[in-house]
Amino acid sequence: MHFAVVKKSIIPVGDISEIIPDEEADTAVLEEPEHLTWFHHGKRWKTKFRLVIGIIHTNYLEYVKREKNGRLLAFLLKYLNSWVVSIYCHKVIRLSAATQDYPRSIICNVHGVNPKFLEVGKKIFEQQQSRNKAFTKGAYYIGKMVWSKGYGELLIRDHQKELAGLEIDLYGNGEDSDQVKEAANKLK
């Protein structure tokens, strides 16, 4: 793996499937198959394995839209992603409807989130719908501090009046840490 500074992402180098003997290559689960296969130059996963399941975690189209010429890049990336995923995966599971849509994909919670956390989310949603205060102890956001992870939206610049009193604690670091902290402090 190689960290590509420009893409702020890990890019695979080499072909990991070479170390798996053909007689043992039954099923492969590719986490973020679009990401893993942008630069894949080894044997086709669907040729090597009897079944390849791709798990889609991230909506890369939204990241790309934030860059210069983002709309055009997102348009092209949508087709590149669909193309490589269809070449390399038999089945596609999207963890959320917020991810890019893929032909023949399903949306399913296979990421191991404890159902108790999902129940908390449902309860908060119901409280918001009934206009009750949903976050009584504030909110926590843990993640790499780069603008492309949604910190602009997280800081809720356009909704300051509606959410007065909501405290959000940000944990993490990254290339944009100083800027994110400065923006958060300005918004109090």
TrEMBL record:
InterPro entries: DGDG1/2 (IPR044525). It is found in: Membrane; Plastid, Chloroplast. Keywords: Chloroplast, Membrane, Plastid, Transferase. Transmembrane segments: none annotated. Belongs to the glycosyltransferase group 1 family. Glycosyltransferase 4 subfamily. This is Digalactosyldiacylglycerol synthase 2, chloroplastic. It comes from Gossypium arboreum.
